[in-house]
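Query structure, 176 tokens:
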């Protein structure tokens, strides 16, 4: 009788443990499915073309922000105070990078949205700034325009609701 009782209790323990494992696996499965499908449940299906466009705009605006941040650090507000090394750096690094960015943007942007057209115009203005590093007014205008355009792109990304799905975080302008 004791043997029967211990066998019964051993079987009961196994059944209880199997039940607990089953419930835990169902909870984990529910959490995974709920997390992955929350956009579909909420009705927020994001168009892949929109996501691709937002990633491209973010990438280009990030490149522009990095170039402008570096330019603002190397070339002071009064460009006549810039060292010859800094001017040479603008000639050898910034100008080619901005020109390369312009060419890539021309290749990628087929249908010009307001944001992409503004970004292209701003890169062109910054390229002009790099061609004339001694022009303080052009420097100020180009850097202000770059900051405004980057804010415009980020506002569009936020308005479309795709910010959390982009592959890279935003780079912001760090100059006055």
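Result returned for the query:
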């Amino acid at each position: 009788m004791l043997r029967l009782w211990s066998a019964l209790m051993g079987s009961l323990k196994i059944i209880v443990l199997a039940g607990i494992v089953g419930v835990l696996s169902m909870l984990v499965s529910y959490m995974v499915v709920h997390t992955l499908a929350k956009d579909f449940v909420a009705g927020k299906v994001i168009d892949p073309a929109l996501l691709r466009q937002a990633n491209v705009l973010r990438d280009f605006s990030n490149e522009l922000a990095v170039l402008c941040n570096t330019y603002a650090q190397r070339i002071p507000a009064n460009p006549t105070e810039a060292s010859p090394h800094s001017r040479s750096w603008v000639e050898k690094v910034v100008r080619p990078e901005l020109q390369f960015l312009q060419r890539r943007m021309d290749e990628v942007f087929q249908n010009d949205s307001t944001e992409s057209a503004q970004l292209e115009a701003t890169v062109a203005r910054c390229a002009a700034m790099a061609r004339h590093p001694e022009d303080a007014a052009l420097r100020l205008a180009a850097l202000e325009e770059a900051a405004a355009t980057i804010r415009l792109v980020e506002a569009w990304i936020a308005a479309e609701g795709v910010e959390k799905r982009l592959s890279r975080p935003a780079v912001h302008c760090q100059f006055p």
